[in-house]
Amino acid sequence: MAFWISAAAGAAKAMWRGDGATVERKLAPDGKVYFSYADIASAVSSAVPRVKAFGPDVIVAIGGGGFIPARMLRTECAVPILAVSLELYDDATKTARDTVELKQWFDEGSGFGKLVRGRRVLIVDEVDDTRTTLQYAVEELRRRNAPAAVAVLVVHNKRKPKRGAVPQDVTYIACEHVADHWNCYPWDAAAYGHAIGEHEALARACAGECRKFPGAAFAVVGAIVGAALAARLKN
To answer: Measured between alpha carbons, how far is residue 153 from residues 63, 81, 227 in Å?
Structure first.
């Protein structure tokens, strides 16, 4: 188990923990890193043994990035899903707010909400960037719903100092540890001006799947994206 340690407010904090793989990917020409649906499914699947070891009674997916990873996880772990909506990033400015905004929480009195109080809960999100959202989710879950045990799972943990903190009694599962770049996920393809096929091509290039032809990967992607844009302009 590896730890990055930094000083924050005079105290040492664990920057990341968990035994997920450390993954290095190439940057796309726009300076971002793209991930495909297959990349996400593979990363989530790699964490299933750790999830089963924790033994959650229910998953709480943080929307919107945690929804699809949680659904993938449900297939392999057969655990029901609840949804909450928390926002830290402003979609318009692509920057982080000072505080997390609570948009939606689940009803504990009905359905799967009854599986939370006094039970084992797994919180799922797509990326651990500043850790602020995860900290908020854990604190709010404990304050509102008093679970017996809490774990968090993220598809990607960014290797960087964190603003927030997850308590040591919370099981932390990172499917993969990645560099501190802007991650583009397939469910957000349209937000970056790409059709899903274009996005997936960029993801393959970032994964280095054209190793036999150095420098060719992004040239191929550029041709695909350029052709798609030309077709759109004609229409």
So the answer is: 14, 14, 38
Active site residue 57: no
What does the mean pLDDT of the chain come to?
86
Residue 211 clears pLDDT 90, i.e. is over it: no
Catalytic residue among 19, 125, 129, 188: 129
Nearest Cα residue to 106 out of 141, 82, 77: 82
**What distance separates the 2 farthest-apart alpha carbons in the chain?**
59
Q: Give 130's contacts (C-beta < 8 A, 6+ positions apart).
A: 88, 96, 162, 163, 164
Rg (CA), the chain: 19
Count of CB atoms situated within 10 Å of the CB of 34: 29
Which tokens is 9 given?
């407010």
What residues are paired with 84 via a beta bridge?
A: 62
DSSP characters for 23-90?
Answer: ---PPPTTS-EE--HHHHHHHHHHTHHHHHHH--SEEEEEETTTHHHHHHHHHHH---EEEEEEEEEE
Cβ density class 169-205: b for 16+ within 10 Å, e for less:
ebbbbbbbbbeeeebbbbbebeebebbeebbbbbbbb
Please check the confidence at residue 166 and state whether its pLDDT lies above 70: yes
Q: Which residues pair with 85 in a beta bridge?
A: 63, 104
What integer pLDDT is reported at residue 88 of this predicted model? 84
Q: Are 90 and 97 in contact (CB under 8 A)?
A: yes
- Cα separation, 61 vs 64, in Å, equals 8
**Cα 124 to Cα 29, 68, 83, 153, 156, distances in angstroms:** 30, 10, 10, 5, 11
